[in-house]
Amino acid sequence: MQTELFQKDKTNKLSSTRVGGKMTADYWENIFTAKERGKHVVWYNGAAMNPLFQAAGLEWCHGEAFAARLAAQHLEEPAQAAGAEYGYIGELCSYARTHLGCAVLTQQSRTESETGVVGLLDQKELAAKLPAPDFFVNGYAGCSTGQQWDAMTYRVFDRKLPVFNVSLPMLWGNKPDAGYMRGEEWVEVSDYAEGQLRELITFLEHQTGRPFDWDVLSESMSFIKRASELRLEAMQLCTHAPTPATYWDWVASIAPINFLPGNQALVDYFAGVKAEIEQRLRDGVSAVKDERYRVYFDGIMNWNKLGFLTRKFAEYDVSVVAGRYTHESFWQEPQLIDVDNPLRGMAQHYLLCPLNHGLKNLQELLLRRLDEYAIDGIAFHSTRTCRAMTNPQTMLAKTAERERGVKSFFFEGDVADASFYNDELFDSRLEAMLEAIDVQRTKSLV
Amino acid sequence: MSELHAPSMAMLQTVADDPVTYANNWKTAHQRPVVGSFPMNFPVELVHAAGALPVIIQESRTPITEGRSLLAEFYCGYTRSVADQAAIGELDVFDAFAAADHCVQLLGAVDAIRYTRPEKPVHFAQFTSAMDDAWTKPRVDGRIAELRSQIETVTGTAVETDTLSASIKAFNRNRQLLRHFYELRRSGRARITASEMQLLVKSSMVMDIDQHTAALQTILAELPVHDEAPDDVVRLHISGHFCHAPRPEILDVIEESGAIVVDDDLYTGFRYISTDVPESQDPLAALSSWYLERNVKAPCPTRVTSEVDWDTYLLDSIAASGASGVLVLMAKFCEPHMLYYPELRKALESHGIPSLLIETEHEGIPVEKLRTQMETFVERIRRHVTTVAV
C-alpha cells in the first residue's frame, strides 16, 4: 500500500509562470531543429551571454539550463548513464556530468549520421536531441569546474571546434575598500571583463563571417533591462506578509530571464507575473495557505525536487520567500545596463554571479535579504556536487545566527542527481528549525 | 633497504612530517615572517625574496574535527584538512596566507581561514586559468605585481630586483637537483622508492630552500648508481593526485607488490618541479612566464588550453620512462581530475597501456584491499607486456 507523501497541498503557485514554461519549451523545440534550418549553434556555459549570441545571429544552447531541464523533467538518466559509461565519476558536478553525457550522445549520433551506422541511440530521447555545436563559449564566474567542463566538452568533440573563454575573476575582496559593487577591485575587474567581451565579439564575427549587430544588442538589452526591472519590482512586492509569491515561482521564472531572447515577449512575461502578484495583494491571496514561517533558501536549485519541495515546505506552513540563487542572479542590477553601450553593464552582471563572491560580500547580501524579507529561518541546500554554492554555507549560517538570531537547517540534495536527496533527514531538520523559531517567538513574548 | 643517505633523509622526514614545528623554529631563529601558500602554481620566490619563509600548506594527518563545521564532507581531503587546521589553530604560526590558483574547493578552504582567523592577511592573486589568450599574461603580470606589493606590506621588506633574481636562482637550483633524482630513477640505475621521492619533493615545499638544497647535494653525493637497471620488475608511472601528497603507505604498497615506480606526474612530484623560472628576463615578468610554461611542460587539468593536453604528455612520459602501466591516484572529490580522467583512460586504452584508478581519502584507505588490487594489477601487466607505441 502506498502512503500519501503529502496530506494536503497548501501551495498556491502563480499561474502566470505557465507562460514562461511554454516560452521555454518552444525555445528548446526550436533549438532542436537549428541544424535543419542551417543555423550556427554555440554551446556555452556560465554567464548569460545570450544577448551577444542573439546579436550575432546564432542559436545558443546553455549547458546548465539543458541539464536542469532534463532533471526537472526526470529525463536526466540517459545523459548521466552515457556520461558514466564514458568515465565521469558520480561525485562530479551533476550539471557537468549531465551535459557532458549529452555531448557524448550528440557526438555519437553525429558520428552515426556521418557513417550511416545506426546504433542503439533513440533520437526521441530528449538528452540526445541537442544540435551539435559549431563552437564553444565559456564565461564561468566563481566555479573553476565550469571552465574545465567546456574544456572537456571540446575534447569529447575530438578537439576540432573553436573555444572562447571569458575569464571572470572572483570578487574576492583583497582590498579594505572592497564590497558588493564597490571598491577598486570592482572597477578593475569590470574593465578586464568588458575588454574580454569585446574580444568575444571579434571571435563571433570571425565564426559567423558576419559583422556583429550592435543595434540588435542594444535592443535586446533594452528588453532585458525592462524585464529585469519588472522582475525586481514583483520580487519587492513579496516582502509583504503573507507573501503573494514564493521562491519557487522565481525558480520557475529563471529560464526566461537567464537565456530566452531579449524581446517584447520577455517583457510581457514579467509584466504578467508582476500583475498577478499585484492582484493577489489586492485580493489578499497568499502563495502558501497558512504562512507561519518565512524562510530564505540558500543553495542552487534541486531540479529533480522542484514540485516536491514546493509542497513539502508549504505543508509545514513555510513560505520560502527569497533565495541566493534567484535574488542575487539574473540581471539583478538593471541600473548597471546602459542600453546604448551595454557591454560594461553586461560584464558587471557576469561578475555578480552569486558564486563569484568571497565570504564578505555574501554575508553583506544575506543580511540585507534577511532584513528585507523579514526572514525567520534559512534552508541551506547542501548541494552535493556544487561546491561553488556550498563553499560559504556553514559560515553564512553562523553569520545569520550571530548577527540576526536567524536559525537555519541544512539538507542534502543535488542540482541534477536525485540520488543525493535524503527525505528523512530533511523532515527532522526542518522540524527542528521550526521548533527553534517557535521557542524564539515564545521568549520574545515574555 | 633504502640506499639514500639516512641522516639527511631522517632530517627531511622530520620537516615534512611536521612543517608547522619547522616553521615555528625557523621563525624563532630568524625573527622573520612565515607565509603560507597553496597549490599548485604559487610563485614562492616572491616570499623568499622578502626574507620570509614560504611554506606550501600541506594536508595534515590529523583527523578532521572542527573543520567539519566549515566545509562539507564532499570536499577533497586537502581542503577539508586546511579548513580544520585553521579552525584548531595549527596554522597560527603563519603571518599571512596567499593563493594563486582558482579551484573552487580551495577557495572554500581559504575563505574558512579568513573566517576563523580574521586578523590574518589572506591574499588571492588569481592567475587566469585560460592559458591561450593574448590577455592572460598581462593579467598574470598584474596579479604578480599586486602579490609582490602585498608580500612587501606583510613582511615589511621591499622585494628588490636583485634579491628576487637570487631567489629565482636558488629555487631553480633546487628544482634542477630534484629533476636529476628523477632522471636517475627513470634510468633504473638508482633505487629511489616512490615514498622517498615524494619526501624529497614535499620537504622542498616547506623548508628553507638553501638548507634543502644542501641536503639534496649530500644525498646525491652518497647515492649509489648501479651499472644496470633491474629487468625483472614491472615499471609503473603514477599519475594525478593534485595539491597534496598521497599517503606514503599507499606508495609503499605499490612497490611491495612487485613493481617499481619510474616516473610520475604528481603535484608532490614531478609536476611541482617540472619548470624553472627563466633567469634571463626581468624577474617579475619571468614569474608569469614560468606560470604559463609550467602548463606546457606538465599540462594540468586545472588550466584550460587547446595547445597541449595531459593525455599526450602522459603518453610521452611513459614512452620516455619505459613504464608498462599507469596507476592513477585520484584524491576523492577532486573535480579537475574527475573531469579529465575519461580522456586519460581513452588515451591509455587506445595505446594498450594498462591502468588502475585508485581514489584516496583523507581518512585513509584500507591498505590490504589496496595490496590485493595492486598485486592483481602487477600480475595483469606481467601477462600483458605492452609495447608502447606513441
H/E element sequence of chain A = HEHEHHHEHEHHHHHEHEHHHEHHEH
Which overall shape of chain B is indicated by the principal axes computed on the Cα atoms? globular
Question: What are the segments of chain A in which pLDDT stays under 50 over at least 5 consecutive residues?
Answer: 116-120
* Content-based structural category of chain B: alpha/beta
Q: Could you explain how this protein is built, in words?
A:
The complex is a heterodimer of chains A (446) and B (390). Chain A has one domain (16-445). Helices cover 52% and strands 10% of the residues of chain A. Chain A has 446 residues and is an alpha/beta fold. The longest helix of chain A is centred in the middle third of the chain and has 25 residues, at 184-208. In chain A, helix 5 (94-115) packs parallel to helix 6 (144-156) and helix 15 (359-372) packs across helix 17 (393-404). Chain B folds into two domains: 19-160, Rossmann fold; 229-389, Rossmann fold (3-Layer(aba) Sandwich). In chain B, the strands form two sheets. In chain B, strands 2-1-3-4 form a four-stranded parallel β-sheet, sandwiched between helices. Chain B has a four-stranded parallel β-sheet with strand order 6-5-7-8, with helices on both faces. Chain B starts with 5 loop residues before the first helix and ends in a 7-residue tail after the last helix. The chains are: A alpha/beta (446), B alpha/beta (390). The interface between A and B is large, with 48 and 47 residues.
What layout of secondary structure does this protein have?
The complex is a heterodimer of chains A (446) and B (390).
Chain A: H1 17-32, E1 41-46, H2 50-55, E2 59-62, H3 63-72, H4 77-86, H5 94-115, E3 135-139, H6 144-156, E4 163-165, H7 184-208, H8 214-237, H9 247-252, H10 254-259, H11 264-283, E5 293-298, H12 306-315, E6 318-323, H13 324-327, H14 343-351, H15 359-372, E7 377-383, H16 387-390, H17 393-404, E8 407-413, H18 423-445
Parallel strand pairs in A: 1-2, 1-3, 3-4, 5-6, 5-7, 7-8
Helix pairs in contact in A: 3-5, 4-5, 5-6, 7-14, 8-11, 15-17
Chain B: H1 6-17, H2 19-30, E1 34-37, H3 45-49, E2 53-56, H4 77-87, E3 96-99, H5 104-116, E4 122-124, H6 136-155, H7 161-187, H8 194-204, H9 209-222, E5 234-240, H10 248-256, E6 259-264, H11 267-273, H12 283-297, H13 310-321, E7 325-331, H14 335-350, E8 355-360, H15 367-383
Parallel strand pairs in B: 1-2, 1-3, 3-4, 5-6, 5-7, 7-8
Helix pairs in contact in B: 1-8, 1-9, 4-5, 6-12, 7-8, 7-9, 8-11, 10-15, 13-14
